[in-house]
UniProtKB/TrEMBL annotation:
The keyword RNA-binding applies. This is U4/U6 snRNA-associated-splicing factor PRP24. It comes from Hyaloscypha bicolor E. The keyword Repeat applies. Residues 546-557 have a biased composition (Basic and acidic residues). SMART domains: HAT (SM00386), RRM (SM00360), RRM_1 (SM00361).
Length: 1032
């Protein structure tokens, strides 16, 4: 279990433990947790007060028989929590928090009330003198409640030393003058900070505290003529500790860095014993801000200054690199830490008395550090990672190799850097200087000259003019006349190229930036395919039940599902937690639309991505941040910037495909596919990444071509960015004509309607056999032309009276029908979810070929298989990819509203083979296919996703002594897979006459004539026959 961070986190932990502590051992365990909390936040007034109250409660309970403690525990408790022990804890707390000007009096007053009770119970001179000295010490410390403390002291002296009251108070006032002056100088800042706290505005508190800290640092830097600070440095320390433990500045690495610099500088100048040690402060800083490379590098450096052993240094290194947060803000922190680590390794070999072991550690550690950074960068940014732009770790390694004389090995590192840093003038400059440093002075600097020649010929160098200047100067100093002439000639020619390059760059810079919005064209006849066409599936009646909806209402409804701003990420949940428990924990904050819960790879915790209904609900859920879930302190952060809307990928894409596609961007946390229950044309997905940086890297793939057909869309989920639809139907240029004479051709309609304007497209809808359905869509060039064509409504054309109306798009498509080998009814949608990109059309001429065969209904039934238990997020293309491995598919109809699909094969043998092979196939995690007949499929209900929180045990299943086995289905008339009537599994049907002769055919349909002695085949044998596609 990881430790909490901040006083509120520790308080939540110990509060949970104290409420459940039921015996002495557990109560002592709470005391130990309080000690750990105090070590983590040693200046926290809240923690000290809670700790003192807990110990005091244990002291009073063990003295009281009515507290309910067992007698043995009561006696042991009286020894452990004696009065002296309890009051010592109060005194420690008062001393630790005494310089917290605003609230230290809360603990001190409580402690004094206990001390005064002890004096009142048995007054004696020693106790009175002790309490008087405590008051005098307290009144010499600056504090907001000085007057209140002074009044308490006055009352105490009046009661126990009345004769000396006046002299005592006069002396006290003199002693307290400095403390009062110190507080009066700070009172303005304290009041401003108090008002900010009372306003409840966190940013106001941060701003006031920053201003206060800047002022206090300025006071601490002032010195008198003797060089002594004019203000106690401990007040600056106390304010830093107060800001870091009691405000959100504790998560600001810059404030920690300011504090550490102040301590380091002050201890070096003054050796003030009151100042805290630096290393514990830095350790606390890295606990609060584990993502800060600056703090980790300072930790390494300060530990080196303290001469800590290598084993301890290595522990610090592992603590830094094992945190999940070091690269939270990019690779800068990772590089910064490894620079500090590499510098430490190099300096190990430079100190007096360096051992061979120190040299070996550096020899192994430096290249390992360089490799670690490269791997980290590639893991986070993929191929885009080019290394540290300033190649600082490489320079440390090069310097180490140079010091030990390994020039060629060092030169090899320079040459590797050329691949990633060749465009940098600074890189070539340092490379050249190094070559000049290691050259033999008695020979010409050939390597340095070669570096300069390579640099000036780099066409994309950022400062070629300066590099050419260095080259000419070098040749003047070290080359002969021939070499100098060659250099001048090269520079002359290259200067012209550079001048042209600068002119081009200047012209580009002078041009105003033009924002061009890319318009993606579709393959639909009218430019828009996300609408309701005439149904081509076998269950077309269902589509007539749903009416078109108002587009503005749909847009508004879509806007409400704003995943970008309604999602929170919850980390450090217990590893065994369930979705139901997590929902119960967050149910008070709003309606949960969806939740993804995953255990972490280390099996120590779980992480959940929770989508609420509104952004306000998600914001309220953030209140759980830092609270405890069982024994885990959870972190709740906004899910902003984690979720991408991805579309226009191949129709067969699944989770594995998308994980492979984005593998170089970062870890994917969840992939959410849309339900196809009401619209099978949807082809997009929401991908949530583990980090904001991974999501940002994934957006760089936007526009990437996939397979030469698709152009990937990968954008942040933003429903407000939804584009308006385009195309003939959306622009009002398309009409829908029904009640057509079935003998009319597209040419006939073009001739009739062209008198109203230019006709762009005529599409007559046809049946599977190629016959006209009596309906068509006609697209005009202009909206006015389409409106004019409405005049033909209710006019007679040949034998029919026409119905002509404007084409209206609809969002309902409850089934998807695809034909042939390469078709898919799932066209890729636009970036806003509409279907117009990269469709997968059926081969031309397929319908006519199919019409020539005109199969009977019986034949179609015999070669058809129905698949059930298909999730409503799986499209027809994925089902086809799975089913076509068992034979050629003539037609596939996806029925998400029945959780299944109808697959018609080219022959009955393929159907039978598929029926057995696909039974119990896992098409999605936890979803296994079932096969059956049409009645089985249409008996299935739509998939229901409930948001209800289950409490209790739910409905119990009836007791059963024997687990029922799955029913064994046999092919029969119209049975599963349409395998026909009593014919051999996987074999073509026999002539009717042969089929009617039942005397030579067994019940299972296998010819047994002359094979009476053969062993009968089992179900496994039959299944193997299907999978192999042959006889046995």
């Amino acid at each position: 279990m990881t430790d909490p961070v901040g006083e509120d986190g520790w308080l939540a932990l110990v509060d949970e433990l104290s409420r459940t502590a039921g015996d002495l051992e557990q109560r002592v365990g709470v005391v130990e947790q309080y000690k750990r909390a105090i070590a983590a936040e040693p200046w926290s007034n809240k923690l000290w007060l809670a700790y003192c109250e807990w110990v005091w409660s244990l002291h009073t309970d063990c003295q009281n028989a009515d507290a309910g403690w067992p007698e043995e525990e009561q006696m042991l408790g009286q020894e452990l929590f004696a009065l002296e022990t309890a009051t010592d804890v109060w005194q420690q707390g008062a001393q630790a928090t005494q310089y917290r000007l605003s609230d230290s009096h809360e603990l001190w007053n409580r402690w004094m009330s206990i001390e005064l009770e002890q004096v009142a119970a048995s007054p004696d001179e020693q106790k009175i003198e002790r309490v008087q000295q405590l008051f005098l010490d307290r009144l010499q410390v600056p504090q907001a409640a000085w007057d209140e403390t002074s009044q308490m002291f006055s009352t105490f002296i009046s009661k126990y030393k009345e004769a000396a009251w006046e002299a005592t108070m006069v002396e006290t006032t003199k002693l307290a003058k400095t403390a009062k002056d110190l507080y009066s100088h700070r009172e303005t800042h304290e009041l401003k900070l108090q008002r900010a706290v009372e306003s409840g505005q966190e940013e106001a508190v941060r701003s006031e505290m920053r201003s206060y800290l800047e002022w206090e640092l300025a006071q601490a830097s002032k010195r008198n003529k003797k060089g002594v600070p004019t203000s106690p440095l401990i007040l600056c320390v106390a304010l830093f500790e107060r800001a870091l433990s009691s405000t959100t500045l504790g998560l600001d690495s810059a404030v920690w860095d300011d504090y550490i610099v102040f301590l380091s500088t002050s201890r070096r100048e003054l050796q003030d014993s009151q100042l805290p040690a630096i290393l514990p402060v830095i350790q606390r800083a890295t606990n609060h801000c584990p993502w800060s490379g600056t703090l980790w590098s300072r930790y390494i450096l300060c530990a080196e200054v303290e001469n800590l052993p290598f084993a301890t240094m290595e522990q610090i290194k592992h603590a830094a690199t094992n945190t999940r947060d070091l690269d939270r803000d990019g690779m800068g922190s990772v590089v910064e830490f490894y620079i500090a680590w590499s510098g430490y390794l190099k300096r190990l070999t430079m100190v007096d008395g360096a051992t061979d072991e120190d040299v070996d550690v550096a020899e192994m550690g430096l290249p390992t550090a360089l490799e670690d950074v490269q791997q980290w960068g590639k893991r986070r940014h993929g191929k885009e990672w080019k290394g540290d732009p300033l190649f600082r770790i490489e320079r440390i390694f090069i310097q180490h190799l140079t010091q030990k004389g390994s020039f060629e090995e060092a030169r090899g590192i320079w040459r590797k850097l050329v691949k990633t840093h060749a465009d940098s003038y600074e890189f070539w400059q340092q490379y050249y200087v190094w070559e000049m440093t290691v050259r033999v002075s008695t020979t010409p600097p050939a390597n340095a000259t070669a570096v300069l020649i390579q640099a000036i010929h780099r066409k994309t160098l950022d400062w070629p003019e300066k590099m050419m200047e260095v080259y000419v100067r070098h040749c003047n100093n070290y080359e002969d006349a021939v070499g100098l002439v060659n250099a001048l000639n090269s520079v002359h020619q290259l200067s012209k190229q550079v001048a042209k390059r600068r002119e081009y760059e200047a012209a580009q810079y002078a041009q105003p930036e033009v924002l061009v919005e890319e318009v993606v064209e579709g393959e639909s006849p009218s430019g828009v395919s996300k609408r309701k066409r005439e149904s081509e599936d076998t269950d077309g009646a269902a589509s007539k039940k749903v009416k078109s909806e108002d587009q503005a209402a749909l847009r508004e409804q879509h806007l409400k599902r704003d995943r970008e701003n309604t999602t929170v990420l919850v980390t450090n949940l217990p590893v065994e937690v369930t979705q139901n428990k997590t929902r119960q924990y967050f149910k008070a904050y709003g309606h949960i639309n969806s939740m993804t819960l995953k255990p972490e790879p280390d099996k120590l915790s779980s992480t959940a991505l929770i989508e609420f209904k509104t952004p306000e609900e998600a914001q309220s859920a953030l209140l759980r941040d830092g609270k405890y879930f069982v024994d885990k302190q959870i972190q709740v952060t906004p899910g902003t910037g984690l979720t991408l809307y991805v579309t226009n990928f191949p129709p067969t894409a699944d989770d594995a495909y998308l994980c492979k596609l984005f593998k170089d961007c970062g870890e994917i946390f969840s992939i959410r596919w849309p339900s196809l229950k009401f619209n099978t044309h949807r082809r997009f997905v929401y991908i949530s990444f583990r980090t904001v940086e991974a999501a940002a890297a994934a957006t760089q793939l936007d526009g990437q071509p996939l397979g030469g057909v698709y152009k990937l869309v990968s954008k942040y989920s933003d429903p407000a960015n939804k584009k308006d639809r385009e195309g003939a139907m959306a622009e009002g240029r398309e009409i829908h004509v029904t009640s057509l004479d079935t003998g009319l051709t597209e040419e006939d309609l073009n001739e009739v309607f062209s008198k109203y304007g230019k006709v762009e497209k005529v599409n007559i809808l046809k049946t599977l056999t190629g016959a006209s359905k009596g309906a068509a869509f006609i697209a005009f060039e202009k909206k006015e032309e389409a409106t004019a064509a409405l005049e033909l409504d209710k006019t007679k054309l040949k034998s029919r009276v026409l119905n002509v109306e404007m084409s209206v798009g609809k969002n309902f498509k409850s089934s998807a029908t695809s034909l042939g080998k390469a078709s898919s009814a799932s066209p890729a949608p636009e970036a806003d979810g509409d279907s117009v990109l990269s469709p997968s059309p059926a081969p031309e001429g397929y319908q006519k070929t199919h019409a020539q065969h005109a199969p009977s209904r019986t034949e179609i039934t015999n070669r058809t298989v129905t698949l059930m238990n298909i999730p409503d997020t799986v499209n027809d293309a994925r089902v086809r990819a799975l089913a076509e491995t068992h034979g050629e598919i003539v037609k596939l109809v996806l029925k998400p509203d029945h959780q299944g699909a109808i697959v018609e094969y080219a022959d009955a043998a393929s159907a039978g083979k598929a029926a057995l092979a696909l039974e119990n196939h896992e098409i999605a995690p936890g979803r296994k296919l079932r096969t059956g007949g049409m009645k089985d499929l249409f008996a299935e209900k739509p998939e229901i996703k409930s948001d209800r929180i289950q409490t209790g045990q739910g409905k119990k299943a009836p007791p059963a002594f024997i687990q029922p086995s799955a029913p064994v289905r046999r092919p029969g008339p119209g049975g599963r897979g349409g395998l026909g009537i009593k014919r051999g599994l996987g074999y073509s049907a026999k002539p009717t006459a042969a089929a009617s002769s039942s005397s030579a055919t067994s019940e299972e349909g296998v010819n047994t004539t002359g094979n009476e002695n053969k062993k009968p085949k089992s179900n496994a044998d039959f299944k193997a026959m299907f999978v192999k596609g042959g006889t046995q």
